[in-house]
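STRUCTURE:
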């Protein structure tokens, strides 16, 4: 196996050690991590600018291909921990949303995954890298599979009650099986709807369809302008929603209870990785319930999730993020 090392710009957060100081703490400084942590140390080179690939294991593999990814397990609980590591199954709900399965559940992807260390004995403040291997069988069906690499700790039995507290954190796995770069990701905003929920909160609902061949993790913001008296609001963010290929889901933006009915010029900007779409409509909020929807027919801004790259002799590429920097590694994928 050959390795080519190339300098690169840091794309992963560096974990900094606390330093004693007599100066007051800078309120802009992020707090030190707590609890059990897990982060990805490797991403495909062709996806190094994709925010999704910097957080999750995202790849497309032909049948008969094996890859590895390194992840970092961090014990920031302040105490010794025995950490269990294992792959878990996951699905995407029909109406949108990532859903993890019970520990006992398996899917095709979990049977292809293995971890070089299934248990870690970790002192407080310790970090330990592990390697995840995904070996796609030669007869694997084409399509996208979903899973999670879990790190789990168990608390003591409180007072012999038989109830044991389990905490776990994980990294999502989105694996597409097929030739070349796999099907491209894409989505479209179908319509925007104003509504007031049962608590009286004004909401803008974007109905979105995944028109590509890969799952999308939709996030974004909404901005209201040209309201009564020239009022403006936003941007306001939405909670991310995962949508499977060929499925439709809602992205909901909450705006509070004290908002004039309108009309408002509403602009919704959604993204998934490097894909970006924007839709604008004039909306008026109802006194209660659901208001009048506006279908989106104008062309929407878009950028592809991936750009074409030369794939030859089964060669793959990885970006490897070290604690104090990032190194690019080109690794030969081994077909089994």
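SEQUENCE:
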């Amino acid at each position: 196996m050959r390795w080519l090392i190339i300098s690169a710009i840091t794309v992963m957060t560096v974990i900094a050690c606390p330093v004693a100081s007599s100066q007051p703490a800078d309120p802009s400084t992020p707090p030190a991590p707590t609890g059990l942590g897990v982060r990805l140390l490797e991403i495909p080179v062709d996806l190094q600018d994709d925010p999704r690939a910097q957080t999750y294991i995202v790849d497309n593999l032909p049948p008969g291909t094996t890859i590895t990814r390194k992840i970092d397990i961090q014990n920031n609980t302040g105490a010794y921990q025995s950490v269990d590591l294992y792959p878990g199954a996951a699905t995407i709900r029909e109406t949108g949303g990532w859903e993890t399965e019970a520990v006992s559940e398996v899917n095709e992807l979990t049977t292809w995954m293995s971890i070089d260390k299934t248990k870690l004995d970790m002192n407080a403040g310790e970090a330990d890298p592990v390697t995840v291997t995904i070996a796609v069988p030669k007869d694997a069906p084409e399509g996208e599979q979903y899973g999670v690499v879990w790190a789990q700790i168990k608390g003591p039995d409180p007072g012999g009650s038989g109830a044991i507290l389990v905490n776990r954190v994980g990294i999502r796995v989105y694996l597409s099986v097929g030739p070349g770069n796999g099907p491209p990701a894409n989505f479209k905003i179908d319509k925007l709807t104003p509504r007031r929920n049962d608590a009286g909160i004004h909401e803008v609902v974007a109905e979105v369809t995944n028109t590509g061949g890969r799952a999308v993790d939709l996030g974004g913001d909404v901005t209201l302008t040209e309201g009564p008296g020239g009022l403006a609001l936003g941007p306001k963010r939405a909670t991310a929603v995962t949508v499977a290929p060929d499925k439709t889901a809602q992205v909901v933006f909450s705006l509070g209870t004290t908002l004039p009915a309108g009309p408002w010029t509403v602009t919704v900007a959604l993204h998934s990785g490097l894909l970006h779409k924007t839709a604008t409509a004039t909306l008026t909020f109802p006194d209660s319930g659901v208001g009048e929807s506006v279908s989106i027919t104008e062309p929407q801004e878009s950028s592809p999730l991936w750009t074409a790259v030369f794939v030859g002799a089964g060669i793959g590429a990885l970006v490897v993020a070290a604690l104090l920097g990032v190194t690019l590694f080109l690794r030969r994928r081994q077909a089994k």
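REMARK: The radius of gyration is 23 Å.
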